[in-house]
Amino acid sequence: MIWIIGCNGMLGREVSELFQKNKIPFIGTDIECDITDISALAEFAKDKNIKWIINCSAYTNVDKSEEEEPKAYSINASGAANIAQTASLIGAKLIHISTDYVFNGKGNSPYKESDAKQPLGAYGRTKSAGEDFVAEKTDKYFIIRTAWLYGKNGNNFVHTMLRLFAEKDSLNVVVDQKGTPTWAGTLASLLMTIIQTDSDKYGIYHCTDEGETTWFDFACAIQEYAFDAGLISKKIPINPVSSSEYPTKTERPKYSVLSKEKIKNEFSFIPRSWDAVLNDYIKVRPKSV
User: Fold this and answer.
1) pTM exceeds 0.70
2) Residue 88 belongs to some domain of the structure
């Protein structure tokens, strides 16, 4: 049996739908099973013959993490530790989802899994601590770092842009931060590949769609594809601005492109280009988004 923790989140729902489509049996939990309480995890896992755990749960509000770091830590770090310890106790393999925010973004070439971590803010710190706890508490783990995630469930940049295109006469979008937009379905497909092959190639991996872009160019592509798909009736000016002109509580990584060579080599998993995936995604989105 596969246990999806955080099954109602953006990624958790994408994984659940993919598994249902492929007739892969699983059970899912969300806030009703408190990951900050290890006894609750142990009680749920009891007598279910769980072979895999996928941890999709996370505190993901980057700016609010600065104000609520203890809360973020309880979920992203302590919660991850509890899940890893539970996996070890029941003999299950663990897939834990992490983030590009464990890096400082001061590089200029795609980050490899072995590169040194140096998070800039509370969100990155708590996720980095969660990675360390996972590696400490269990031997059978896959840590999958991803970035700029979007999907049909939950808040994300694509849905925010689609809403703002209808509400605003123009938009300012940051142009000096680079990364890779990633559809949640791409990540879900990698997780399915790992589980279907019953892999024991444990360790840290990176998974995003292919290529790199800026938030500004990402926004422009969303508008272009949405207009072509009939999701929006008009185009508005999108103006490139620097991070200094758009201050936030947390410093964002300037460069957070992740190398995918390891998943290509180990799992023969070849991500598609971010713009092609985005175009396909927008073509099937309902106009209500």
Assistant:
1) yes
2) yes
